[in-house]
């Protein structure tokens, strides 16, 4: 049996749906409610049971400080070892993402898996095109961005979900493999051009001031600033072939996905 964690989230839900469309039996776990599987809260190790699970798709449970995320992933991997899971598919972070504030917990988890008794596949996911688009601002009808002239090899979340479903469906083909799942480079200018609007640059200082005033969780401004500076300075732009290899087709148009996300934040004038 395949179990997909984070099934209440967007990636986990999409992986489950795709597995079901492929005719593969799979269940999803989440910490609150799930129609198709058990309740599993990585913050509560006693709640974790992977009995009867052959393939575990461990969707990263980020969005917290490193010590919290590392403890969550440790609890999940220890339970997988204890309960006899055969193979773990972990959704990690693109190789170029080492400068990002949330990279450490991903690399820690990869190392923990490599040193474990488990068979594994690591999916080094690029940043979502949806996320890229959501990080633009609007000044009236003008798009604003702190990405400068940098590009992001952005990926549609749906493509990453499909790649995970492909691997989880036939894990024996992907044992010990690490895939770098990035798309083609997309710039802020590409998005502005697709929208047909002007683009204004925002400095990292001004973006930090804006984020600090936005009432975010304490770890979030640093996390977001690390995305802006990494893209701005060309550390997340490299494309690769692993995504095409797993999908056996061209990836979705990341400019279009990012443009739709940016457009969703456009104020009604
Ligand atoms: N590549 C990217 O651009 C990108 C962007 C954002 C995030 N991420 C990472 O990729 C993961 C999946 O992305 P997504 O789009 O599906 O994010 P999402 O929609 O926010 O879903 C996150 C999932 O993680 C679960 N989770 C959080 N804490 C947990 C815990 N303690 N125990 C068990 N489950 C827990 C959430 O459960 P609840 O519904 O109960 O909270 C939810 O199902 C994220 O968690 C994050 O680590 C990647």
Description of the molecule:
The protein has helices at 10-21, 66-82, 103-114, 129-134, 157-169, 188-195, 204-212, 220-232, 242-247, 254-264; strands at 2-4, 26-28, 55-59, 87-93, 119-125, 137-139, 142-145, 151-153, 177-181, 185-187, 199-201. The strands form 3 sheets. The protein has a 6-stranded parallel beta sheet with strand order 2-1-3-4-5-9, sandwiched between helices. Helix 1 packs across helix 5 (157-169), helix 2 (66-82) runs parallel beside helix 3 (103-114) and helix 6 (188-195) packs across helix 10 (254-264). The chain has 10 helices and 11 strands. With 269 residues, it is α/β, with parallel strands linked by helices. Strand 6 and strand 7 (142-145) form a beta hairpin. Helices cover 40% and strands 17% of the residues. The N and C termini lie far apart (51 Å). The protein is globular and about 55 Å long. The chain has one domain (2-264): Rossmann fold, CATH 3.40.50.720. The structure holds NADP nicotinamide-adenine-dinucleotide phosphate (NAP). NADP nicotinamide-adenine-dinucleotide phosphate is lined by residues 5-6, 8-12, 30-32, 40-43, 59-63, 72, 91, 125, 127-128, 131, 157.
